[in-house]
Amino acid sequence: MTMPQQRDLNRTREQIMAAAQKEFAAHGFAGARTDAIARRARVNERMIFYCFDSKEGLYRAVLAQKMSAKTAILESTPDEDFTCSLVNGFAESCDDVDSLRMWQWEALDRSNRKLVAEEERRTYLQAEVDRWRRAKAGGTLPPDADEEMLLLASAALRAFPLAMPQATSLITGMDPLDPEFRRRWTACLEWIGQRLFAPAVKSGEALKRDKAEERSKAGKRSLSHAAAGGGRNQEL
């Protein structure tokens, strides 16, 4: 009896969290109502408080689930380069627009309410910063790259078309989730990523070529001097 009951409770929790994400995305934390979440989940409202204690507890659980999934992806791709992170990050955002909407609602909240799951989110974002810090130490990013600003730029590129769909529509005539727009934006992200650090790579290659050319010229000068000296000795 215990195991089936536990499975049922876990299923109920998942139903509530899925419904809550939709409600929080649609109305924000302040505007979301537990009775509306219960209707979405098709459960008794009391189950929300039984499983999560409060609306904030439910909100925290939804965020924790998302952070856990993102952390798993980050840990499974420790050597992902900047271009791939842009492309994959945009794809993930398209697949989970609700999470983006929840962050947008938080940005609009002027109540000075403490950010829910603040430390968990900071830990995840610092892990992303650390990845770029390691990339810089390993030489795959230029030494003058600011890894924190780089993460902000990356987040903006991954999310902007979805965060501002009206701008996307006005500029391109397409919805950001339109497959054709996604294809074009992905190609643009690849273009940006490949060129963002291209000057540093080219400079290194150019420096190697310059050194090789200088060595070659020095060798030719030495041969010329030797030939000229040998000719004078023969004349004497």
- Mean pLDDT value: 87
| Main beta sheet | none
Helix content: over 70%
The structure class reads: mainly alpha
- N-to-C series of helices and strands: HHHHHHHHHHH
Spans of 5+ residues with little confidence (pLDDT < 50)?
231-236
As a percent range, the share of strand residues is under 5%
Distance between the termini: 113 Å
Give the topology.
Layout (H helix, E strand, L loop, with lengths): L1 H30 L2 H8 L3 H8 L2 H22 L5 H14 L1 H12 L9 H20 L9 H17 L1 H8 L6 H18 L1 H38 L1
Helix pairs in contact: 1-2, 1-4, 1-6, 3-4, 4-7, 5-8, 5-10, 7-8, 8-9
What do these coordinates show?
The chain has 236 residues and is mainly α. It has eleven helices and no strands. Helix 4 runs parallel beside helix 7 and helix 5 (82-95) packs parallel to helix 8. The radius of gyration is 28 Å and the shape is elongated.
In short:
With about 240 residues, the chain is mostly helical. It has helices spanning about 1-30, 35-40, 45-50, 55-75, 80-95, 95-110, 120-135, 145-165, 165-170, 180-195, 200-235.
